[in-house]
Amino acid sequence: MLSESLFCLLTEDLLMKILQRVDSDRKSLRLVCKEFLRVESTTRRTIRILRIEFLVGLLQKFCNIEELDLSVCPRIDDGAVSILLSHGSVSWTRGIRTLVLSRATGLGYVGLEMLVKACPLLEVVDVSHCWGYGDREASALSCAVRLRELNMDKCLRVTDIGLAKIAVECCRLERLSLKWCMEISDLGIELLCKKCLDLKFLDVSYLKVTSESLRSIASLLKLEVFIMVGCDLVDDVGLRFLEKGCPLLKAIDVSRCNCVSPSGLLSVISGHEDLERIDAGYCLSVSLYLRLWCIYLIPCPILM
């Protein structure tokens, strides 16, 4: 009781500073006293839900949540989202900026659209490994017009049409990962590069894109990281498009690109003095590493 009365004398700002300096987990910390519980509840920004039936009660306790993680909630589906959003006040959605739905395969385009529309400040969405997601789900994601980061890894049914919808409506995108979205072609990448001019990170690994996509990607003036692992249809012609494009490029990954040769990669290096990292595993010989290091003396590491 004495310790609890002493904490009552501290202001909320001091309690928040104490919470920030304690290394132990917050779950244990909020059991110390009612003041810690109250401050921890108001300052928590991230919540990860295991069971959907507890979500409403938790969101009533933690009213300032900015990141909602439902990736380990196996029962999340369209019906659960509908009930969740219709249950009392939905003011908790007004502050959500990050939504993690990785592997939420039970959630369809109807529930996804309801959830996205209920979060007007949404900036980051992760729907990776939702293998059944297609163009209708992509259309639902396009409702998040403030979106800056989107991870769609292994959304196997998304085509150029779905990507076009996202590119047109979410033109503020800065980071986009399309790994294993194998229905996307050069056409979708071309439209993406015309609409999303702020892209800084782009992953097109294992897509059936050709060197024509790199012609479009070369027009991205803010691109810093470009990953194209396993793009077997891209050759040196595509890499030469990057030689005079993407002036801010700092890292490139061409691992497992079987049609890429030393001359193509050298053209990228010669056009980017500030290049910091090159990943070229499983496609280039050790002799290329020695040639680049000894002749060009580039400062960036090359990973084989």
What can be said about this structure in brief?
The chain has 304 residues and is an alpha/beta fold.
Labels describing this entry:
14 helices, 11 strands, eleven-stranded parallel sheet, 304 residues, 39% helix
Provide the succession of SSEs. HHHHEHEHEHEHEHEHEHEHEHEHE
Question: What percentage of the residues does DSSP assign to strands (E)?
Answer: 5-15%
Spatial order of the strands forming the largest sheet: 1-2-3-4-5-6-7-8-9-10-11
Continuous helix count: 14
Give the strand tally.
11
Dominant shape:
globular
Structural class: alpha/beta
| Rg computed from alpha carbons, rounded to a whole number of angstroms | 23 Å
How far is it from the N-terminal to the C-terminal residue, by CA?
62 Å
Q: Which stretches of 5+ consecutive residues score pLDDT under 50? A: none
Portion of residues within helices: 25-40%
Architecture overview:
There is one protein chain. By secondary structure, the chain is an alpha/beta fold. Helices cover 39% and strands 11% of the residues. It has helices spanning 2-8, 12-21, 26-29, 34-43, 55-61, 78-86, 109-117, 135-141, 160-169, 186-195, 211-217, 236-243, 262-270, 286-296; strands at 46-48, 67-69, 98-100, 124-126, 149-151, 175-177, 201-203, 225-227, 251-253, 277-279, 302-303. Strand 6, helix 10 and strand 7 form a beta-alpha-beta unit. The model has no long low-confidence stretch (mean pLDDT 84).
